[in-house]
Amino acid sequence: MTVHQVLIDGQWSTSAGTSTFQSVNPKTKAPLPGRYPISPWAEVVRAIESAARAADAVRDWSAERFAAFLNRFADRIDARAEELIAMAHLETALPVQPRLKDAELPRTSNQLRLAARAAEDGSWAMPTIDVPANIRSMLRPIGPVVVFGPNNFPFAFNSAAGGDFAAAIASGNPVIAKGHSSHPGTTRLLAEEALLAANETEMPRGFVQLIYRTSHEDGKRLVSHPLIGASGYTGSRSAGSQLKEVADRVGKPIYLELSSINPIYILPGAIQEKGAAIAEQFATSCLMGTGQMCTNPGLIVVKSGEATEDWIKQVAERFTAAPVGTLLSEGVQSHLEHGVQTLVSHGAKVVTGGSVGGGTGYSCQNTLLRVTGAQFIASPAALQTEAFGNASMIVVVETDAEFVAVTNALEGNLTGSLYTATDDSDDARYNQVEPILRQKVGRLLNDKMPTGVAVSCAMNHGGPFPATGHPGFTAVGIPASLRRFAMLHCYDAVRPNRLPAALRDQSPNPSLWRMIDGQMKQGNVPAAAK
User: CB 3.0-4.6 Å disulfide test: which of 21, 37, 479, 503 passes with 118?
Assistant: First the structure.
């Protein structure tokens, strides 16, 4: 059986690894053709050293060079769309339409092009000139970036083409892509096109590399290696936390997207006014993609009452009637089953579903649970266990004080949503809950489910731990996402001809931020900056 090659130092080569793995079709549970190597540490070091040489080579390159690569890569992805979609469908069971063909693949090439425009614009680097003091600063590339892709977005978050990849390249860094075992074939095809685009735009050897898997210990050594600038990781809370621990120990930035149950508050007036519509929106959002999205609504908070009981019944009917989708892997099925069992063992009651099976291949019944507000407040950590997949839990509170107590007990999340009536009947409760929830989430929504993550310059796909490892950065939203993979360079009395172009007095950059003498005299600059 074919063992696929790794991409190291500008060429595809046979791995030195003796262990291999296969991807599996989630619908049939059958292994797919071809095996993929588990790279030994010596091979990982080769990739690191090649990436470091590439970083040295491109350090002073113009942004237009990186933009040219990103645009060419996007064109190559679009040209190979049919084969990429077919492979991703086989490896993930995600539907060809509308998910892969109409949404995710176009989003991926669009992200690359947006990143290219951000690189050329240059404002992401926040160049700043203090003319009187002759001190200048801007963000500059941090060095080789390692990208760990997740299982649930084979294109848009792929380690060899997704958002972290695009941001790292646009900010001027080589990338070592560490593939995900659920879709190595898809990642291989993307890396093939990335290498061709790199060659066509005359990028150095090692600018884009791919390894499929390492041991857990070697993954830790990778993110903490002295030659690595930073890492981007999307995946499980347990694995991400272990990587963060070793990276933090040696001061290496690592940007994590980990775990989120995305609480939704449906206040009493909203249930009375538009309960049926919200029930439909919630069921659609929760079961979309078999619930395998990081913004899946996993926790619903409502107040007890006759209308609420009727609303829960409506949701349960929709969950029961909806087809059961296929999960991404046996591991996802196992973790979902364990998550539901943990919730039940701490007091949650199954409203519908709750068992493995019901669909084709790896699957779990569409599952709705409920728990009282008092139970949630008594066991908040256990009852925030992420049941990643087509499952959600409703928290039924008795009083407004419990609304507040539940909110205070929440961990950090990517999103938080509040549904309210169009009149002012929910405003008092909203004003109690919103200030607390606002500090617990990266993105706050009103009257809207959280599953859509627009590729917008204003988007924050981040939040407090454990949603991410750092609340000040976003994985989606250009140009802000580029700043994760940069370091601040300051130049004090450096001669003009030795400055980066963006920091010279006659810089062509229209987005240049300057502190001019007049501003200083008028007191428009903070004292600390004077």
Answer: 479
Question: How confident is residue 290, by pLDDT bands cut at 50, 70 and 90?
Answer: very high
User: Looking at 193, 294, 337, 364, which residue is catalytic?
Assistant: 294
**Is residue 528 predicted with pLDDT exceeding 60?**
no
Active site residue 273: no
Locate 463 and state its tokens.
Answer: 């939040």
257 is catalytic: yes
Given 104, 193, 257, 386, the catalytic residue: 257
Q: Is the pLDDT of residue 518 over 50?
A: no
SS (H, E, C) 361-388: CCCECCEEEEEEHHHHHHCCCHHHCCCC
User: pLDDT digit string (tens) for 366-388?
Assistant: 999 999 999 999 999 999 999 99
- Whole-angstrom distance, CA of residue 38 vs CA of residue 219: 11
Q: What is the 3-state secondary structure (H, E, C) of 448-497?
A: CCCCCCCCCCCCCCCCCCCCECCCCCCCCCCCHHHHHHEEEEEEECCCHH
Please give the pLDDT value at position 297.
Answer: 96
Q: Which of 495, 318, 305, 461 is nearest to 392 (CA)?
A: 318
Report, in this order, helix, strand and coil percent for the chain, each rounded to 5: 45, 20, 40
User: pLDDT class for 70, splitting at 50, 70, 90?
Assistant: very high
What is the pairing mode between strands 135-141 and 486-492? antiparallel
pLDDT digits (tens, 9 = 90+) for 200-251: 999 999 999 999 999 999 999 999 999 999 999 999 999 999 999 999 999 9
Residue 475 main-chain phi, psi, to 5 deg: -90, -15
3-state secondary structure 47-78: HHHHHHHHHHHHCCCCHHHHHHHHHHHHHHHH
Sign of CA dihedral 285, 153, 67, 474: positive
Q: Given the DSSP bridges, would you call strands 513-515 and 128-130 parallel, antiparallel or unpaired?
A: parallel
Cα distances (Å, whole numbers) of residue 415 to 110, 395, 488? 24, 17, 29
Section 79-83 average pLDDT: 98
Which three-class secondary structure string do you get for 1-60? Answer: CCECCEEECCEEECCCCCCEECCEECCCCEECCCEEEECCHHHHHHHHHHHHHHHHHHCC
Is 221:44 a contact under the CB 8 Å cutoff?
yes
pTM, whole model, 2 decimals?
A: 0.93
d(CA 44, CA 176): 9
Q: For residues 451 and 299, is the Cβ–Cβ distance under 8 A? A: no
Please give the Cα distance from 176 to 43 (Å, whole number). 12
For the record, the structure tokens of 53 come out as 């040489």
* Closest of 349, 273, 283 to residue 307, by C-alpha: 273
Instruction: Provide the residue type at 135 as one letter.
Output: I
Of 225, 214, 301, the closest CA to residue 21 belongs to 214
